[in-house]
User: Which sequence fits this backbone?
């Protein structure tokens, strides 16, 4: 029973992380001009905003795809942790410096949350990523991952 | 699981987090963070101690102090269906129904602005190219259709209004006088520079005093223009800071066949709000002086005081606030500052506590 719970938890977490990045990347691509315009307004990112406006959705999409593939999943979670930790610190600095800028996060939780809400959300996602990492590193013990038919992805 | 194994795994994760922190720290260190360096000027701070007389919580949709008339302060929101009235001697806040939702005056609510003064209630609706006059019992009694859309409007006498209109021909904005009696635009004047960006770079704050003098203060540079009622420039000057070049860049974002002109870079505000009272111009500056501490600068709002006839800088005030709140709108009357934040109206006095409101 315990094993099944861990398996289910890993399944849910990976899908959740995947959903966030794929949705976020898609939102940025579909409204690229708005995203690139908003990112250029950030005092931290202004100098590299052109590069980031391309790089962020590409990296998010690539990590999303890597999460789907068993062989690259561990690396994908590490990359996920890097991106989400960077974003959490960025939100913290934006909050701390009180710029009063609109959040250009372009994702599931757009605008309504504000910087405070996004900071808390990012911490939660960072913790979830940690859990995913822990589960993935011990996935050899979780038999469900070997069963490709059950989950439809390998 | 062995302890060494757990440590190894934990170290890997911590290394990734440390790397991400290094990345963001590097970006921050080499960024154009406003006010992180000295700006090359100093302020003279008033010796008057600033005291918080009252703080009243308000709803988030209140965006502006519409005006103060005798002992009543009016607050307006993103739509004018209701306004808030603060009775200054008692500190009592009331909600009043103002304009019904579907009236012409209340359409395009984002571009609607209310001004309340001794001339009455004036509603400016720039997108609808309209000005509406409302009686004291909240009835619409006159409306005017301007030929151009406008972004700023200030009524400075019973029959005169100053507007900043959008001129499609030049893709920019001009200041002009609108005569309510003749229902015509007069004296279109190019006060600010033209950049063909629909006036985005030269965006600012328009204010007039009852004597017919108008002031335009730019948001992204330190320019102040003093004009007469015909929009002739009487004097040009600068705010005390050193930002004479516009900190805003604009660009065209294309969407299909149309496009929107938007800012291309961080909105580095130089000035955040202005108000005029008793021959003095008050400007809420967003620029740190060299004799201010950066952390403390973030924790309070600075107001610079100028003489309206000479545009000379007089002194500055620090308004203490909590949670690094920034001023949305403010008014000054008889030495009392009425400051609107996103969640509260705070009343400060620069003199003594016995001025108006007592702390509830």
Assistant:
């Amino acid at each position: 029973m315990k094993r099944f719970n861990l398996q289910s938890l890993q399944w849910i977490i990976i899908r959740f992380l995947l959903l966030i990045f794929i949705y976020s990347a898609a939102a940025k691509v579909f409204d690229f001009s708005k995203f690139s315009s908003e990112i250029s307004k950030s005092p931290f990112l202004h100098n590299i905003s052109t590069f980031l406006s391309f790089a962020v959705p590409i990296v998010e999409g690539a990590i999303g795809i890597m999460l789907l593939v068993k062989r690259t999943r561990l690396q994908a979670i590490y990359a996920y942790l890097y991106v989400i930790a960077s974003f959490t610190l960025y939100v913290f600095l934006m909050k701390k410096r009180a710029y009063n800028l609109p959040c250009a996060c372009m994702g599931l939780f757009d605008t309504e949350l504000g910087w405070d809400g996004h900071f808390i959300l990012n911490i939660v996602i960072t913790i979830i990523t940690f859990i995913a990492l822990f589960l993935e590193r011990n996935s050899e013990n979780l038999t469900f991952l070997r069963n490709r038919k059950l989950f439809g992805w390998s | 699981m062995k302890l060494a194994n757990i440590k190894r795994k934990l170290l890997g994760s911590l290394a990734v987090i440390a790397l991400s922190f290094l990345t963001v720290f590097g970006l921050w260190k080499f960024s154009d963070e406003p006010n992180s360096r000295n700006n090359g000027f100093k302020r003279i701070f008033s010796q008057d101690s600033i005291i918080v007389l009252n703080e009243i919580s308000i709803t988030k949709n209140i965006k502006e102090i519409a005006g103060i008339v005798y002992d009543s302060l009016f607050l307006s929101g993103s739509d004018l269906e209701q306004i808030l009235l603060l009775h200054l001697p008692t500190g009592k806040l009331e909600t009043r129904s103002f304009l019904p939702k579907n009236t012409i005056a209340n359409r395009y609510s984002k571009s609607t602005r209310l001004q309340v003064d001794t001339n009455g209630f004036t509603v400016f609706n720039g997108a609808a190219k309209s000005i509406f006059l409302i009686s004291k019992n909240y009835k619409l009694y006159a409306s005017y259709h301007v030929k151009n859309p406008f972004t700023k409007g200030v009524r400075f006498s019973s029959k005169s209004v100053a507007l900043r209109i959008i001129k499609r021909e030049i893709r920019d904005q001009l200041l002009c006088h609108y005569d309510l009696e003749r229902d015509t635009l007069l004296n279109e004047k190019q006060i600010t520079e033209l950049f063909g960006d629909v006036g985005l770079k030269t965006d600012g704050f328009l204010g007039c005093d009852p004597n017919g003098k108008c002031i335009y203060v730019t948001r992204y540079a330190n320019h102040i223009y003093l004009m007469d009622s015909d929009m002739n420039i009487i004097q040009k000057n600068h705010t005390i800071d050193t930002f004479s070049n516009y900190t805003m860049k604009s660009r065209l974002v294309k969407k299909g066949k149309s496009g929107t002109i938007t800012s291309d870079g961080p909105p580095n505000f130089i000035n955040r709000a202005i108000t005029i009272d008793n021959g003095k111009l008050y400007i809420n500056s967003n620029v740190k002086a060299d004799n201010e501490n950066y952390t403390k600068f973030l924790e309070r709002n600075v107001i610079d005081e100028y003489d309206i006839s000479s545009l000379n800088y007089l002194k500055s005030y620090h308004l203490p606030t909590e949670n690094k709140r920034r001023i949305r709108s403010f008014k000054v009357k008889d030495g009392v500052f009425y400051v609107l934040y996103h969640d509260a109206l705070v009343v400060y006095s620069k003199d003594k506590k016995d001025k108006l409101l007592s702390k509830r």
About this structure: Residues 3-29 of chain B form the longest helix (27 residues).
